[in-house]
Amino acid sequence: MFELFVLLLKVGFVLNIALVLGSLCTWLERKGSALIQDRVGANRAGAFVESDRWYLKPVLPLVRMMGWLGVINTLLCDSLKGLWKEDFVPEGTSKFLHAVAPIIAVMPIMLAFAVLPLAPDFTVFGYYIHPRVAPIDAGLLFVLAMGSVAVYGVAIAGWTGNNKFSLLGSLRAAAQMISYELPMGMVFVALIVVYGTLDVYSIVEQQGELIWGFVPKWGVFVQPVGFVVLLLAGMAETKRGPFDLPEAESELAAGYFTEYSGMKFLLFWLGEFCEIALFALLLALLFFGGWQIPWVRLPEGVWWAALIGHVVLMTKVVFFCLLQIVIRWTLPRFRYDQLMNLGWKMLLPISLLNLVITAIVKVLA
Amino acid sequence: MNVISFLTGVCAVVSAIGVVSLRNPLYSAFALVINLLAMAGLYAALDAHFLAVSQVVVYAGAIMVLVLFVLMLLNLKSESGRRLGFVRSALALVIGCVVVMSALPPVVSHFSSMSQTTLSDNMRNSVGTVKAVGQELYTNYVAQFELASLVLLIGIVGAVMLAKRKSVVLAPRPGGLVGGSK
């Protein structure tokens, strides 16, 4: 019974982290894009709240601050608006698949969070706790599998749109996601060769060591080429940034979710932002040492060390979320043939070569 | 047999029936996706985690996406009106029953012998891991493994040769989308 309780607690914790990071990315995107484009951005809703109730007085300045920063607008007002809007379903297509598609798009991304550790293991009240939901040994492969299953949500959404723009968007998305999965998988294989395991927890643990006594054994120092390839492939996989061909506003209306409205539309956005967070978490765990601080050894199995590790990890994750948002708002979109050429003619050969060289070094060393 | 393997098994059978009985080819393809995912669930319930994840990556993630891709591009209408006659359906039923009956005895005897020899917890945790599968593949089955990779390589080369038509300009034209035939 206690085991089940701990498991439920962990599921709640991981879902919470995923959703909080997703909302944080939403807000960062709205305000960050405003900053980058020299606009003010959302700053009205809730910024001028007044009340005579005595129990509301102490929180009013905080609410006004949140309103002024656009948090209330982007997180509260937008989701309420999504819930109240008309749920439009196009004629002549399967209503069931139309309703299921956003769920299929979000679910694999949430599932992928299950295998990723969010803090080092610790002992509290005599119980040993792994802060992840499913400690399976093929963790890295599971993330890749969920990434490839996420294609279905997009494909079904585009098809049930019953509309040329939607279909074109979903075909583009499917082609793009399949193409960029290959270099991503090759980078993962090179990482597996270096660290000798598919278990993300063990990979992070090994990154606490030092090479030649002073360089931390982080993925970015061991696999610099792999990091660049994974950064590009991952941004293409999230269908954002310069790779947002599937929803290219100037060509395809809104791409694969043109025919979606209300909360179903917002679910696609939620999935996309959670995917940004997931990818940032992957980069932090695989290439930037996860919860490790360079040249500092935290004691193992203590709850406060786990807490510090969690904060360190989340700092890195937020940094990579910010990096993705900045890239998305500064670079222009690729042309479709450039996208395919980058994937198949540059990233795939580079990642294959990287794998071969890594294997040779591993055998010789 | 626990609850999870029972549920995924039922899911697999129902979706397999769906694959052959649904009239819209796209729905059949979705049913096949569900069937493959249910098979992965069965593997996971049998503690073969690596096999389950590779099933999802290879079949559900790559092959079926391509099938769906092609089906969406072809814009097929659902089949209607082409129903089999009574004689043919009866014949299909008889043949199907015979095949199932002939396959049943070995399966039943296998399961009855399985229930007597249950795996120990230690074996359960080690038999389906990446390490165990890799060990088997690269020691006992290394010849078969290399042969399979050779066959796959031949397949890749063949696909490239088939896709490479001679009289067509495939290079992208500047300023346009990917160039088609002239």
Ordered list of secondary-structure elements with their pairings:
The complex is a heterodimer of chains A (365) and B (182).
Chain A lengths: L1 H35 L23 H10 L1 H14 L10 H18 L9 E3 L2 E3 L9 H22 L3 H32 L4 H7 L3 E2 L3 E2 L2 H4 L1 H14 L11 H4 L9 H26 L15 H28 L5 H29 L1
Antiparallel strand pairs in A: 1-2, 3-4
Helix pairs in contact in A: 1-11, 1-12, 3-11, 4-5, 4-11, 5-6, 6-9, 6-13, 9-11, 9-13, 11-12
Chain B lengths: L2 H19 L3 H21 L3 H26 L11 H31 L4 H7 L2 H10 L2 H22 L19
Strand order of the largest sheet of chain A: 1-2
Order of helices and strands of chain A: HHHHEEHHHEEHHHHHH
User: How many helices of chain B in DSSP terms?
Assistant: 7
Portion in strands of chain A: under 5%
Outline the biggest β-sheet of chain A. Answer: 2 strands, antiparallel
Counted beta strands of chain A: 4
Low-pLDDT segments, ≥5 res of chain A: none
Q: Averaged pLDDT of chain B, please?
A: 79
Chain pair forming the biggest interface: A-B, 32 and 26 residues
**Oligomeric assembly:** heterodimer
Task: Please estimate the helix content of chain B.
Answer: over 70%
Radius of gyration of chain A from CA coordinates: 22 Å
Which whole number gives the mean pLDDT of chain A?
Answer: 84
How would you describe this protein?
Chain A is an all-alpha fold and 365 residues long. Chain A folds into 2 domains: 317 residues, no CATH class; 42 residues, no CATH class. Helices cover 67% and strands 3% of the residues of chain A. Chain A has 13 helices and 4 strands. Chain A has a two-stranded antiparallel ribbon with strand order 1-2. In chain A, helix 9 packs antiparallel against helix 13 and helix 11 packs across helix 12. The longest helix of chain A is centred in the N-terminal third of the chain and has 35 residues. Chain A starts with a helix and ends with a helix. By secondary structure, chain B is mostly helical. In chain B, 16% of the residues are buried. The mean pLDDT of chain B is 79. Chain B is 75% helix and 0% strand. The longest helix of chain B is centred in the middle third of the chain and has 31 residues. The chains are: A mainly alpha (365), B mainly alpha (182).
